[in-house]
Write a structure and sequence with these properties.
Layout lengths: L1 H10 L27 H17 L18 E2 L15 E2 L7 E4 L2 E5 H4 L12 E5 H7 L4 H4 L6 E3 L11 E3 L2 E2 L5 E3 L2 E2 L15 E8 L3 H4 L6 E7 L7 E9 L3 E11 L6 E11 L10 E14 L2 E14 L5 E3 L4 E5 L8 E15 L4 E21 L7 E28 L2 E29 L16 E20 L2 E20 L2 E2 L3 E16 L5 E12 L14 E13 L5 E20 L6 E22 L3 E16 L15 E10 L8 E10 L2 E2 L7 E2 L2 E11 L6 E8 L8 E3 L2 E3 L5 E9 L1
Parallel strand pairs: 9-12
Antiparallel strand pairs: 1-2, 3-4, 5-11, 6-7, 7-8, 9-10, 11-12, 13-14, 13-41, 14-15, 15-16, 16-17, 17-20, 18-19, 20-21, 21-22, 22-23, 23-24, 24-25, 25-26, 25-27, 27-28, 28-29, 29-30, 30-31, 31-32, 32-33, 33-34, 34-37, 35-36, 37-38, 38-41, 39-40
């Protein structure tokens, strides 16, 4: 049944994604793709699952189910409120993806940093975790919103845009190459970017700087690893409802626990349904999501988890506004009769873990992912003349599907005084991307009368593209501990082959092949003193093959980077507090960026020769006594174009502020008549930045204020009522990136109620 359902997912996957090689500033192209069932897709999925399952034969003896229920060891993590955080009800012993420990806002470990259980304070690299309790307290509505309080994670550079989660890490655009899900690459290309629903997440980790030595193809600034909700050993049910600004209606449910009376099988089912408008009158934010998961754990040494998700999203093809003088007007480029963006995505995968002995642990994870998108959008032909704006129309239909797998063997052993945690593995992926686009004309728009009564014809497809990419990587990591000294050594080699064919629909030219390979690695050292202070130093490199084409039609070459980082971490003994600070320098070559045309009618992806990022960042998370939780962050960034588009050398990349800072505080009364009442608030500061790469004008500095009120109803156990407000003072100054200006997200107020039983 799962297989049949997923095939349906793939089929209905034909839509579109983000700023393609021809556009993104003004947005969207696509037309309805054929929705017929693909037997080729079926065969691909079956082949992928068969090959992945065959890999399990490498693990001796997947434990057999036992006649009697097995009592599993559990990990109970106490949060500020006394309930388990992260994996509610306790984690399943040995479960892949359960290698983390969270207490409120503070994460002690995360497998994202090293693919092991090394405590964060001993990791010689900057890593931050946004926990589930932070998601809940802030009622996070998007991935972009989840990152707004993290140091060096710049979200919101493109203003209000519910279509895509766009963000920078340490100044580098990580939108396409910086997102992983459950430790595996999350595919994206052009208009096709995975829609991330925060309610389906257990946490997210931000690993700063190059990480290719462990993850292969990765962004120079860092990666974001999203951890999906997993089954729990104890039963719980949760239902919720929300209503907010722009007629935002949302319903949620989450249920988990043992399946039947076996004691070895556990389930989780998460769902979201949303109907919502946005500040843009022609753009919606509608979503349907269902995410089933199941874990089979016959004993404390064995676990097998299946994670799946089906999601449909409807937004708008054009989210931009008519440009003013380095500003935006309140008139959208879009037309209510021609502004759709429909995306269907699905994924199914598994995580297997088998503890073979006191020394060896075998792990394998794999996932098949499919997306399709269809979009209709409008874009301007230059500026308005005598109050009349000339417009063009576009349609786009895209599909993206592929499989990714990671097989590893971990060995824990001693050699004299050295304690080793060695991890060796092989991983790889295969992805196929198809694109059809068409362009036409649309009736001009009188900015005074705003007459939308004239129809717009859907253009025929005139441009087509097919691209496939396969990657294979071998990696080896050794975490060596000598008392309080930690040395992290990692090396990896990747081989990548890309095939690209372009032309007209039904008449593609001969495919061009491109083969790349690279050696990457990481070396770091850290020392943890008795007082909890841990200075560290590290060097790391990255390698990121790119799916896409230069304006001349040639395939992108890989992006490479190297980083030097010095830092210090402080975990106060017997206090739930973790502070991390670092200085770094990253040099990147052949990075992919969007470059708008002179009239901003389109935007093309280009490769810049060399960028340098230097900076300092500090980040703290604390879960203090009596219900008080806190996050603090500050980042200084110097982002320079060393070699790039003529006229920009020595300049700063646009929308990269030198100074950003954020603080969020939440307090819940623990005793007395007000027990259960809580209040939270935060401030996000974004310093001034340049509005284009030529540095001819600047964006003003700005500050956003957020607040929350919540109450755990004492008379009804498990009932929580909450109100969240973001950008309370309605900061709405235009934000310009790459010379194009965007409208900010206005004040949002959302009331919610959740009942857990």
């Amino acid at each position: 049944m799962l297989t049949l359902q997923f095939m349906f997912i793939y089929r209905s996957v034909r839509s579109e994604g983000k700023g393609s090689s021809t556009e993104w500033m003004c947005d969207m192209r696509n037309s309805p793709a054929d929705r017929g069932f693909s037997s080729n897709a079926t065969r691909r999925l079956a082949r992928f699952l068969s090959l992945s399952a065959a890999g399990l034969a490498l693990a001796p003896g997947l434990a057999q189910a036992q006649d009697a229920p097995v009592v599993l060891d559990t990990v109970t993590i106490e949060a500020a409120g006394g309930e388990a955080d992260g994996m509610l009800g306790g984690a399943i012993a040995g479960a892949a993806g359960a290698d983390y420990a969270v207490d409120g806002y503070v994460a002690d470990t995360t497998a994202s940093a090293t693919k092991t259980d090394l405590p964060i304070v001993r990791v010689p690299q900057m890593v931050a975790v946004v926990t589930e309790e932070q998601f809940d307290d802030r009622n996070v509505q998007s991935l972009t919103e989840a990152l707004t309080y993290s140091a060096s994670a710049r979200a919101g550079a493109f203003g209000l845009d519910p279509r895509f989660d766009s963000f920078y890490i340490r100044g580098f655009d990580a939108t396409y190459t910086g997102v992983f899900r459950d430790g595996l690459r999350d595919f994206s290309n052009s208009f096709l970017l995975s829609q991330v629903e925060p309610y389906g997440l257990q946490s997210l980790s931000v690993l700063k700087g190059p990480s290719s030595g462990l993850y292969g193809s990765a962004n120079a600034g860092g990666i974001i690893d999203l951890t999906s909700k997993r089954p729990t050993t104890e039963s719980f049910r949760e239902i919720g409802a929300e209503y907010g600004t722009n007629n935002r209606y949302q319903a949620t449910f989450d249920a988990s626990g043992p399946l039947g009376g076996s004691g070895s099988t556990f389930y989780r089912m998460t769902g979201v349904a949303r109907d919502s408008d946005t500040d843009n009158p022609f753009v919606s934010d509608d979503e349907l999501l269902i995410a089933p998961a199941i874990t089979y754990a016959p004993d404390a040494d064995t676990s097998f988890t299946v994670l799946s998700e089906l999601q449909r999203v409807h937004t708008g093809g054009t989210a931009a506004y008519v440009q003013g003088n380095r500003d935006v007007t309140d008139v959208p480029y879009a037309d209510p009769n021609f502004n759709d963006l429909d995306q269907t995505q699905g994924r199914i995968g598994y995580e297997f873990e088998q503890r073979l002995s006191d020394v060896f642990t075998f792990r394998q994870k794999a996932r098949y992912q499919g997306m399709d998108i269809y979009g209709e959008y409008l874009y301007p032909y230059g500026a308005a003349v005598n109050g009349v704006l000339a417009r063009g129309s576009g349609v786009v239909a895209q599909t993206l599907h592929g499989g990714v797998a990671d097989t590893q063997l971990e060995a824990k052993f001693d050699t004299g005084i050295l304690r080793h945690t060695m991890t060796g593995g092989i991983d790889g992926y295969y992805t196929e991307f198809t694109n059809k686009e068409g362009y036409g004309t649309a009736p001009s728009l009188n900015l005074a009368s705003l007459d939308y009564s004239r129809g717009i014809d859907r253009p025929d497809y005139t441009v087509a593209e097919e691209q496939s990419q396969r990657q294979l990587g071998l990696y080896l990591q050794d975490i060596i501990e000598i008392d309080r000294l930690t040395v992290a050594l990692g090396a990896r080699h990747d081989w990548v082959k890309t095939e690209t064919a372009t032309g007209a629909p039904g008449n593609l030219g001969e495919a061009e092949d491109q083969s790349d390979d690279a050696f990457t690695g990481r070396v770091g050292v850290s020392y943890l003193f008795d007082n909890g202070i841990a200075p560290y130093a590290s060097y790391s490199t990255s390698f990121s093959p790119n799916i896409g084409l230069n304006p001349d039609g040639s395939a992108f070459v890989p992006t490479t980077a190297e980083q030097y980082e010095l830092g210090v971490k402080y975990q106060v003994p017997d206090v739930n507090l973790l502070v991390s600070a670092a200085i770094y320098q990253i040099e990147q070559e052949k990075g992919v960026f969007l470059q708008p045309s002179a009239d901003f009618s389109t935007s093309v992806q280009v490769q810049l020769d060399k960028l340098r990022s230097r900076g300092f960042e500090i980040e703290a998370a604390a879960g203090l006594a009596d219900g008080l939780n806190l996050t603090l962050s500050y980042a200084y960034l110097d982002m320079e174009i060393i070699e790039g588009v003529p006229g920009t050398e020595g300049n700063t990349l646009s929308s990269r502020p030198q100074h950003t800072a954020a603080a969020y505080l939440d307090y819940t009364v623990q005793n007395g008549f007000a027990k259960g009442f809580g209040i939270g608030g935060g401030v996000r500061f974004v310093g001034e930045s340049f509005g284009n790469d030529r540095n001819s004008f600047k964006n003003d500095a700005r500050a956003y204020v957020d607040a929350a009120l919540h109450y755990d109803v004492q008379a009804v156990e498990g009932l929580r009522v909450q109100v969240n407000a973001t950008n309370i003072f309605d900061e709405d100054a235009a934000l310009c990136t790459e010379g194009f200006c965007y409208a900010e997200q206005e004040r949002q107020v959302i009331g919610s109620v959740r009942y857990r039983f």
